[in-house]
Design goal:
716 residues, 14 helices, elongated, EC 6.3.1.14, RutC-like_sf, diphthine-ammonia ligase activity, Rossmann-like_a/b/a_fold, nucleotide-binding
Length: 716
């Protein structure tokens, strides 16, 4: 695509251009924001303003037109989010971010075919969020190939690629006036040393220093600083603030041409490359499905689900089985069905004093994921959310006759809600391909959107197709999103793997085994996934942070705890419990170094009717947070009673919030679930339930297929 370079003149904005070029994009213009006349720099939260006296030379070196605008606004909105969570929200009047909007709007007038914006952001969510907000309003795609890159590696790559940038401002401990004018190559050892001593950001992401680029692979000329002047802003013995004023500069022909090639980071980290090999070996090792392919349904479920199901626990609200009004004419456009669905959701939320902006996570079930249907669903969906929309999993299932869309959600009014909503192309993980956030944190949970195996720089699936590569990317994307959403990582409490071929469940299970995943897990085969993907991974994460009373119970301490996972089988005469301890989910182990024990109560040889898995924390006053129950046939009331009495689960039934009921198409699951749920929850405490038709259901540890399964999420 044709793109405009958002230039500060520094190393990051210039080096990102080389990666835009490496990914096939074409530079047509440059744009920059400058301080008012007579000022070398201003205190801006968004823009590097020092060095603006030489920015025109950078554009001339690139041989592209430069568009400039004076910064007129201030940093009015300084929170993590920018704009309104309500749909259709514009920017903040008078904020300096709106100067960028006006600047890029002007660029589009002169270059109407521009589709992208090059952004040199590495770590700053503050800057990324605001640039993406502007780009979304102007239908531009941010190109941010440095995003989340390791700073030490990145600095080395810049130097190796021939980027010659000099330090033009110092404002960090250990940096002094003597470092002004030095190149990255000359500064690398110093920056590395200061990083190890003081934690200084090697690429200056904490504002420790700023640079001006004199040469770069895409430059047609190099810049020479003919005359500079040191300006001392704050004379401090340990961390002075000083900058170079560029009084005179010139362009010179480059002594040798650069081929413009840059080092592109590996697609997979080493551990995920190893996972890819494990899955490849599984595929070629004869683990294909004996049935020769995924079950194809001959008919769809005939029963329309009940009216929406709601359940509140404390400040949390879950809503399930949300679908259009059955009286809605089936002949009206698909968008009208989606619209009716969200209007019903909006009404339910408002009846509980909540709004769409309070929704944390959505599961969207569609009858097809053909491009037109997916686009229509997203267009209507977007009408109800603004910035920081909820996380989401979207899958195509065999919905009942007369139902064209269904969804379920979890909401909570919480001022601490945070969203990771990355919309730019990068090497990190895929930008969102719909109106959703990659993750939403409503403590203590992090709701992570379903991840498919897209190549992040292009948002395309691997070609030629490779399930092993898709699976490895899905695991890597999930891991990276979790780490970006919560700096401490967190612990996966529930994992759902959506698949389109039952043969792939065995390969995905082997990937889980390689990562020693003992989290409650379900493998669910459905009709199709977005973009034609073969696997989608959706997880629920817990921060692992708790506030507990000290011994005197007058003060409290913040502690971190890992969860433990237990599982077992239940029959009318037999309960077996398997305990997995000493395991930190989210950690990657070279070997599965875990201890396990089991307790058997009364033996039995009957085929199992119920299987259960649970995630819980050994913290006083808390209850289990996620429970998965799998069933075969029609569990009896005695089986349900046995399940309810298990000590590891007994505290959960009063705190269960939502229930996703997965069932095979040909199975009548309603009577089995009804008998189990009434015993466990009674008639008044039922979690909000959503019925989700599947073609195949299995779980960890066994290739056996279950008739139905329920994934329960609770709050304590």
């Amino acid at each position: 695509m044709k793109y405009v370079a958002l230039l500060s003149g520094g190393k990051d904005s210039c080096y990102n251009l080389s990666h835009c070029n490496a990914n096939g994009h074409h530079l047509v213009a440059a744009a920059t924001l400058a301080p008012p006349s007579g000022k070398d720099e201003i205190d801006s939260y968004m823009y590097q303003t020092v060095g603006q006296d030489a920015i025109e030379f950078v554009a001339r070196a690139l041989e592209v037109p430069l568009y400039r605008r004076v910064i007129q606004g201030d940093a009015i909105e300084q929170n993590a989010e920018y704009g309104s969570r309500s749909a259709g929200g514009a920017g903040v009047l008078g904020d300096e971010t709106e100067d960028l909007y006006t600047l890029l709007e002007d660029v589009k007038v002169h270059h109407p075919d521009v589709q992208g914006v090059s952004v040199g952001a590495i770590l700053s969510n503050y800057q990324r969020v605001r640039v993406e907000h502007v780009c979304r309003r102007l239908s531009l795609t941010p190109l941010a190939y440095l995003w989340q890159r390791d700073q030490a590696e990145l600095l080395s790559e810049m130097i190796a690629a021939g980027v010659k940038s000099v330090v033009i401002k110092v404002a960090g401990i250990g940096l002094t006036v003597k470092h002004l004018g030095k190149t990255l190559n000359e500064m690398q050892d110093t920056l590395t040393r200061l990083n190890s001593i003081y934690g200084l950001h090697i690429c200056g992401e904490g504002g420790e220093y700023e640079t001006l680029t004199l040469d770069s692979p895409l430059f047609k000329h190099r810049i020479v600083l003919d005359e500079t002047e040191v300006v001392m802003h704050t004379d401090n013995e340990f961390a002075p603030v000083a900058y170079l004023r560029i009084k005179r500069a010139s362009l010179c022909p480059k002594e040798s041409s650069m081929d413009g090639r840059v080092e592109v980071p590996p697609l997979l980290e080493d551990r995920f490359s190893e996972l890819k090999n494990v899955v490849e070996n599984s595929v070629v090792g004869g683990y294909e499905s004996d049935s020769g392919g995924t079950y194809q349904p001959t008919n769809r479920p005939c029963c329309i689900p009940d009216h929406p199901s709601t359940h509140a626990v404390g400040s949390w609200l879950a809503i399930g089985n949300i679908h259009p009004d059955p009286s809605l004419n089936s002949g009206i456009p698909f968008e009208e069905h989606v619209l009716d669905c969200f209007i019903r959701l909006q009404g339910i939320l408002e009846s509980h004093d909540l709004h769409m902006a309070d929704v944390a996570n959505v599961t969207l079930l569609l009858p097809s994921l053909a491009p037109k249907v997916f686009a229509a669903a997203n267009k209507t969906y977007a009408e109800f959310f603004g910035v920081s929309p909820p996380s989401r999993a979207c899958v195509c299932v065999d919905l009942p006759e007369g139902v064209n869309v269904m969804l379920e959600c979890i909401a909570r009014k919480d001022n601490t809600r945070k969203a990771l909503h990355v919309q730019g192309l990068s090497y990190w993980a895929p930008a969102n391909i719909g109106p959703y956030s990659q993750a939403v944190t409503v403590e203590p949970y992090v709701f992570v959107s379903g991840q498919i195996g897209l190549l992040p720089p292009s948002l395309t699936l691997p070609s030629p197709p490779s399930f092993a590569l898709e699976a490895a990317l899905v695991f890597q994307h999930t891991d990276r999103v979790i780490r970006a959403a919560n700096t401490t990582g967190g612990h996966v409490l529930l994992a759902l793997y959506w698949l389109v071929d039952d043969a792939d469940t065995k390969h995905t299970r082997r990937a889980c085994e390689m990562f020693c995943e003992k989290t409650p897990t379900l493998f669910l085969v459905v009709a199709s996934l977005p973009r034609g993907a073969r696997v989608e991974k959706q997880v629920l994460v817990h921060t692992g942070e708790f506030t507990v009373p000290d011994e005197d119970e007058d003060t409290f301490t913040q502690v971190s705890r890992p969860p433990e996972f237990l599982s077992g089988d239940v029959y009318a005469e037999h309960t077996q419990i398997f305990r997995t301890a000493d395991f930190l989910p989210g950690d990657v182990h070279a070997e599965c170094d875990m201890t396990a024990s089991s307790e058997t109560i009364i033996g039995s040889t009957r085929p199992s009717m119920l299987n259960w898995q649970v995630s819980r924390f050994d913290v006083p006053g808390t209850s289990p947070l996620c429970v998965v129950i799998c069933a075969r046939g029609h569990p009896s009331q005695e089986d349900a009673i046995e399940l309810g009495k298990i000590p590891s689960l007994s505290a959960f039934w009063k705190t269960a919030l939502s229930a996703r009921l997965f069932h095979r198409l040909e199975v009548d699951f309603s009577s089995g679930w009804s008998s189990v749920s009434r015993v466990l929850f009674g008639d008044r405490n039922l979690p909000a339930a959503t019925s989700i038709p599947c073609r195949y259901i299995s779980t960890q540890g066994s290739d056996e297929q279950w008739d139905w399964a329920v994934a329960l999420v609770g709050v304590s």
